[in-house]
Write a structure and sequence with these properties.
- The protein is mostly helical.
- It has one domain.
- It is built from five helices and no strands.
């Protein structure tokens, strides 16, 4: 019985392939849609009858929204790659910044991109701001969220360093025993 359960659990890691495929397809869809929106923005800008300060502001907002969408696609791609590496194939060659040792690496990269997304979203709100709504509350909320997420990244890095130091301290003792 124990052996059968072990085989089921060992094989169940391949269930994550569903999440990998889903995240990858969502990333592809989002990135392609963002690229189409870039084309639409170019077409609308080139065919505009008048170029005014107001139309420039609208273009800025539109481009910020497109960047937001492209960043979301990037996040979905990072999730797909991270899950693939962590659960299915750790030997795949990736750029150094995209290498994942464990789930903490994936979370840290995601938190970094989420911070950028929050910044882009706030920038969009600032550009669209009409002076009537209270943008200060949104700024404070985004600032608090960014601080909390940055705190997470710092705490994770500190714990990771301590873990590596503890492993290094253990290695000489293990080598002396052998």
């Amino acid at each position: 019985m124990k052996r059968a359960i072990r085989k089921v659990i060992q094989g169940s890691r391949y269930l994550v392939s569903l999440a990998v495929v889903g995240a990858f397809l969502a990333a592809a869809l989002t990135l392609v849609y963002g690229l189409i929106m870039v084309g639409v923005a170019i077409r609308d800008t080139v065919t505009a009858e008048r170029f005014t300060v107001a139309s420039t502001k609208l273009l800025s907002v539109h481009i910020i929204d497109i960047i937001d969408l492209l960043l979301l696609g990037t996040v979905l791609y990072i999730v797909a790659v991270g899950l693939y590496v962590l659960f299915l194939d750790e030997d795949i060659e990736l750029h150094g910044w995209l290498a994942f040792r464990d789930m903490e690496d994936l979370k840290t990269r995601l938190v970094g991109v989420i911070i950028v997304l929050l910044g882009v979203e706030f920038l969009g709100a600032v550009v669209e701001w009409n002076g009537r709504s209270d943008i200060l509350q949104l700024g404070i909320a985004v600032g608090v969220a960014v601080l909390a997420l940055a705190g997470f990244i710092i705490a994770t890095a500190l714990l990771d360093r301590r873990g590596h130091k503890a492993e290094q301290d253990k290695q000489p003792a293990e080598q002396q025993d052998s």
